[in-house]
Recover the amino acids of this structure.
């Protein structure tokens, strides 16, 4: 065990003995999300570096405090990538997303519906539990995953089950072919129907985004795969092929980082939160309070809505009626966000499972208390 990890483990042991809450933090780029930020900051950025990288095996192992941008740059040099496109949400003060924070948050970008989520690419982890013990789970190949998959359990746990020290990830080659098609003046209902129809055909669909406008809205569809398949799909689907590849990539990055004009417009609507509605891709247009128009991603499965926090019941009812859920992604007032919880477990049984897992991994309850829900 190296010095940085040993020091972290010792601090966790001392905190558990003293019942001192700890707030696990890398670059702090996801601090906006969650119920509350409590406890002494336990910074993971001393744990940096790519430990192992086997391009031929499509596996990379990096320490949790490694800047995500550094990992992506190293992969790009070998023509590989993290296909789930994790958002960075870089901070204005220079804070950068880290590999550990990427896994702990479990957030994926525009390609999520086509390629899978963060957790689908986690092969193994090294973590420090609430007793200060350094534990290893999984490995560096898919076949090492047997029994209860603890490594993937860490994806989306927001640090409440332990401090990630090291992560092994599956990576993929960059697709040889790519194109983005634009469909102007397309109503949301037509966009959803089209995406459903295309999803049932052997087309290299990778990402989609329907953006509402002053008129009917615009649908963007990204194709990735074999060059011949992409070219054939372009001819089949129609629309307008966007030629400026650099501009197109910047637009998809802005979608991932929530810096598109649609997202930025929330600053002009005081009291509005950014709501995340997760529904079946086949769900129709939702009846949203105030006639709100969502930004639609993931071929219809993800719908972003800007609405007051007071509209929560109506949004949750609309999502529930479609077989999904609605949660607050960015609070209207981050300073007062302790008044709500962005996570709403659908059953008492799941609440009990979460509580038992927390008891096993962090019996003293020192990691990120209150981040996910009351009592956590």
């Amino acid at each position: 065990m190296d010095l940085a990890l040993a020091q972290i483990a010792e601090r966790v042991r001392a905190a558990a003995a003293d019942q001192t809450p700890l707030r696990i933090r890398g670059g702090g780029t996801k601090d906006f999300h969650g119920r509350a930020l409590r406890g002494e900051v336990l910074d993971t950025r001393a744990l940096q570096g790519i430990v192992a990288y086997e391009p031929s095996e499509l596996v990379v192992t990096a320490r949790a405090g490694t800047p995500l941008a550094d990992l992506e740059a190293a992969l790009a040099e070998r023509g590989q990538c993290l296909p789930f496109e994790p958002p960075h949400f870089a901070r204005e003060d220079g804070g950068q997303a880290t590999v550990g924070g990427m896994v702990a948050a479990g957030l994926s970008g525009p390609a999520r519906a086509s390629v899978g989520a963060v957790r689908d690419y986690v092969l193994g982890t090294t973590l420090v539990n609430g007793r200060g013990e350094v534990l290893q789970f999984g490995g560096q190949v898919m076949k090492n995953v047997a029994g209860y998959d603890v490594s993937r359990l860490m994806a989306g746990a927001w640090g409440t089950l332990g401090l990630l020290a090291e992560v092994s990830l599956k990576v993929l080659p960059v697709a040889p072919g790519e194109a983005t098609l634009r469909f102007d003046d397309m109503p949301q209902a037509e966009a959803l129907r089209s995406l459903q129809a295309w999803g049932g055909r052997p087309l290299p669909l990778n990402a989609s985004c329907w953006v509402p406008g002053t008129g009917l809205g615009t649908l963007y569809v990204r194709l990735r795969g074999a060059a011949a398949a992409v070219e054939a799909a372009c001819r089949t689907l129609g629309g307008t092929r966007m030629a400026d590849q650099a501009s197109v990539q910047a637009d998809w990055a802005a979608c991932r980082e929530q810096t598109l004009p649609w997202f930025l417009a929330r600053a002009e609507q005081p009291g509005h939160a950014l709501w995340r509605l997760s529904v079946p891709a086949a769900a129709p247009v939702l009846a949203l309070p105030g006639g709100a128009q969502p930004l639609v991603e993931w071929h219809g499965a993800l719908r972003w809505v800007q609405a007051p926090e007071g509209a929560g019941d109506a949004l949750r009812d609309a999502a529930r009626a479609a077989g999904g859920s609605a949660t607050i992604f960015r609070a209207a007032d981050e300073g007062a966000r302790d008044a709500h919880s962005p996570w709403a477990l659908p059953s008492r049984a799941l609440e009990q499972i979460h509580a038992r897992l927390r008891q096993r991994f962090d019996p003293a309850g020192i990691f990120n208390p209150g981040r996910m829900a009351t009592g956590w």
